[in-house]
Amino acid sequence: MVLIYIDHADQDIKNASLEALSYGATIAKQLGTEAAALVLGNIATPLADLGKAGASKVYHLNSAELNHFDARQYATLVADAAQKLNAIVVVFAHNINGRAIAPAVAVKLKAGIVTGASSLPETSNGFMVTKTVFSGKAFASIKIETPIKVISLNQNSYKISNEGMAATVENIDLTIPASNIKITNIDKIKGEIPLTEATIVVSGGRGLKGPENWGILLDLAKALGAATACSRPVSDADWRPHHEHVGQTGLQIAPNLYIAIGISGAIQHLAGVNRSKTIVVINKDPEAPFFKAADYGVVGDAFEVVPALTAAILKSKASS
Amino acid sequence: MKILVCISKTPDTTAKIAFVEGNTKFDENGVQWIINPYDEWYALVRAIELKEKDPNVIIHLVTVGTVESEPIIRKALALGGDEAFRVNSNSTDSFVVAEQIAAIAKEGAYDLILTGKETIDYNSAAIGSMLSALLDYSFVSLANHLEITGNTATVKREIEGGEETCEVNLPVIISCQKGMAEQRIPNMRGIMAARTKPLKVVEPNASNASTSINEFSLPPVKSGVKLIDADKMDQLVELLKEEAKVI
Ligand SMILES: Cc1cc2nc3c(=O)[nH]c(=O)nc-3n(C[C@H](O)[C@H](O)[C@H](O)COP(=O)(O)OP(=O)(O)OC[C@H]3O[C@@H](n4cnc5c(N)ncnc54)[C@H](O)[C@@H]3O)c2cc1C
Ligand SMILES: Nc1ncnc2c1ncn2[C@@H]1O[C@H](COP(=O)(O)O)[C@@H](O)[C@H]1O
């Protein structure tokens, strides 16, 4: 069977895991086997619903001991479950927790692993998985040569299916290893859409001149229901918080729409955003390198263009 | 306290990405190699800061790489660090690399192992997690803050939509990212001192790769930007709605 690890934060199953589930279910079909989901810890969401995204079975280890993530403990449990259930492929979302445990699970299962996969495996001649490398500047097709395979799927790389039937939910009994980690504080960024979950991102660079000018960008983000991001010099200068920094040394994101305002498009910035489906660039310099990576471009002064774009969006929303 | 910092070599961030030998190998021609930024700016500098606070801290560095990695590991020694290991292997398979580092780590009985978040060439983000399975150590990923008191590490790490603080008993493996420390530049004294610091070359343990690179490819080039007049934002909204279908 294909086993898909379902990550849940705040009692909430994130899209990244549903993408991984639908992806894993398609692999199961390719291999002529079943797809099962694995959920660790207490959760309020009805798990039979995971059937919609492709699971025929959900294995649940329902224990309050697992309500805080501990990579070593979780990796042991996922590997034990995979062994118990004879999984031949184990799939994770390449999100924060998935990245922390998938490679350890691969070691425990003596399985080859591809992290950050971007498409379905090619199984006609061996088992080949394509992943992004060089921070999105290239792809590599990797052959996994072991009987058991582990894959972590890049976020926003596979469509969540909604067609499956309710799954059967079963408890799974595993020995929970002791945790060596004590969580002492959790700080959630209030009221904002997390960057890695956002489908639209509005991002600003040094062209906005100073933190006092971010209002126009925030208004645009609000009109679009978008998350906000920034270039590295902007967060280095503390104009914006560090968690907004995208690029080679910041977050790598792949939203459906990325709007870059007053960002030149340095190669290190592009490395964080080049997997976005559609890129809009607003820059007063027609020679800015970002235009080469853009789908739509506006040459103009951000202080005029951005408020006009916000107004146009609000107008279009009001009329539809 | 003994710290092991894992140092990898990557092409300079502006390197041209091209492939040779039927698209099976990265074209290293003319490439400038650097220390992977996450390893240098965050993991190594934080280790050095811990040593500056507590002179009893010993910092060892490890890189798995051929002789071409020597300038990189020397530069890391120039920044700080007491001695270095180079495991003489050209493998890019994460499991093989992790097994080599695990062998060094077992030998040295380190309290703290620091890695970068990921390498910026293969973007595997795998070594720290694999080491935790090979050594049965706790693993905290994507850390942006680290303090050590006695036998306890206090770590802040990124979580979905925020960050969490945790306490974990040593030994522990931590993968480091932005926030952990500030970039430094090696000074003359450090560069001179690095010349005489021990750099031990060890031969790799036998280990079998579980993956192989079949082929590299470049993403399709964008068909070209569609420019919209600055005073026609209605038109841009229309295109985003009807053509790109993203709003
Ligand atoms: C190892 C390394 C790693 C790096 N990692 C990252 C990373 O992760 N992320 C990152 O972003 N950078 C990174 N950088 C830095 C990167 O090279 C660039 O310096 C940075 O991205 C530039 O930021 P910027 O575009 O905001 O500023 P600038 O390059 O200064 O560009 C500002 C732009 O704003 C435009 N502009 C000015 N006024 C206006 C106006 N009124 N209206 C519209 N447009 C205007 C200008 O034409 C210009 O194109 C890294 C660099 C190195 C060496
Ligand atoms: N060849 C290597 N030698 C030493 N450390 C490495 C090597 N490759 C990766 N690492 C370490 O593991 C981290 C994650 O790398 P990766 O899992 O390859 O993305 C890097 O930031 C380094 O700290």
Feature tags:
heterodimer, A: 320 residues, alpha/beta, Rossmann fold, 2 domains, five-stranded parallel sheet, 17 strands, B: 247 residues, nine-stranded mixed sheet, 29% helix, 32% strand, binds flavin-adenine dinucleotide, binds adenosine monophosphate
Write the topology of this structure.
The complex is a heterodimer of chains A (320) and B (247).
Chain A: E1 2-6, E2 8-9, E3 12-13, H1 15-31, E4 35-40, E5 57-61, H2 71-84, E6 89-93, H3 96-109, E7 112-117, E8 128-133, E9 138-144, E10 149-153, E11 168-171, E12 181-188, E13 200-204, H4 215-224, E14 227-230, H5 232-236, E15 257-261, H6 267-273, E16 278-283, E17 296-299, H7 302-319
Parallel strand pairs in A: 1-4, 1-6, 4-5, 5-11, 6-10, 7-10, 13-14, 13-15, 15-16, 16-17
Antiparallel strand pairs in A: 2-3, 8-9
Chain B: E1 2-6, E2 9-11, E3 19-20, E4 25-26, E5 33-35, H1 37-53, E6 58-64, H2 70-79, E7 83-87, H3 94-108, E8 112-116, H4 127-135, E9 138-149, E10 152-159, E11 162-169, E12 172-176, H5 188-196, E13 199-202, E14 211-217, E15 226-227, H6 233-243
Parallel strand pairs in B: 1-6, 1-8, 6-7, 7-13, 8-12, 9-12
Antiparallel strand pairs in B: 2-5, 3-4, 9-10, 10-11
Helix pairs in contact in B: 2-5, 3-4
The complex binds flavin-adenine dinucleotide and adenosine monophosphate.
Residues 205-207, 231-234, 247-250, 262-264, 266, 268-269, 272, 283-285, 288, 301-303 of chain A line the site of flavin-adenine dinucleotide.
